[in-house]
């Protein structure tokens, strides 16, 4: 009925009463085997568990890109010695660096060798054979939390009180010396000492769990932690461009295109532009652009392409010229799309379920004026029509006109 494993969530759950008992002979024997295994880890896998700070890479990526590192957001299984020797980032307290990987959450496993307690938390000193580290486990009653696992409503009435009493004793008994526990939490500094503030911790009844962890860690280090943190190609290229711009003072093409795009967007909003030809637009914003000559025309063209791909503008073809339509206002494309949708919904196959937006895009592209309209432009117009209650969405991708 009751599981032997005692699990504790982030704020811990133990009582003020702590009883100490000698470590069982079986636990000591298992611990000796684990220590022998750890001492041979270097020879077997070629990675000394406490050799961290000497091999840390000094080349670090900007802090705004740390979220792109997978290991920054997970609980990293590590040796306790490495947790103790990780270099702290002084500019951002609470973050640490293992080689080129920024991290602040760890997952450690070891034997309890010391127990301390006060009215707010228990502090367990955990030893995994490479080092010892305090682990802070908050008392559940300090946060007035209820244990979600203690629901005895499904038991007979006679057994509910007995089960609740056993659960309360097990829950509040806490860990004792010699218990093998797993702790996941954030690395913190408390009174000039590094510790793990637990968000999850549990006792492991199988002593082989530690042996399996010691066999797993060298592979994790070799395949993951020891590999350099590499940014995605697009992000790395952007950082390199920004660095070159800072050194040389010359803006890159990407920056010029982005500046032209922002300039056009601001011009459309400030002047409430609904339609404009590309030549007129270039004359209006010419003085605000940072590029010059042929580069200016190319930057404007690239910026218009980005706005078109984003569904903010579209190009309408007329007999002698091309006209830009700003889709943030009522536009000719919006009226054309409504007429096409109304015609399609008059057919029996679209009368009830509506017309798919991909089919609407195909129908719009068959017209002379909007032969090269982007699909995002169609979606923008459909969204505006829906906001004004001119059309309704029957499913996530299907639309129909509002019945009159």
TrEMBL record:
Keywords for this protein: Chromosome, DNA-binding, Nucleus, Telomere
Taken from the UniProt entry, a GO cellular component term is:
chromosome, telomeric region
Q: Which InterPro entries match?
A: CST_STN1_C, NA-bd_OB-fold, RFA2-like, WH-like_DNA-bd_sf
Task: Answer yes or no on keyword DNA-binding.
Answer: yes
Instruction: Report the SUPFAM superfamilies cross-referenced here.
Output: Nucleic acid-binding proteins
Q: Where in the cell is it found?
A: Chromosome, Telomere; Nucleus
User: Region entry Disordered: which residue ranges?
Assistant: 1-29
Does Nucleus count among this protein's keywords?
Answer: yes
The chain positions of domain Stn1 C-terminal read 280-399
Domain of life according to the entry: Eukaryota
Q: Name the Pfam families on file.
A: STN1_2
Q: Which GO terms describe its molecular function?
A: DNA binding
Q: Give the protein's recorded name.
A: CST complex subunit STN1
Question: Which species is the source of this protein?
Answer: Mizuhopecten yessoensis
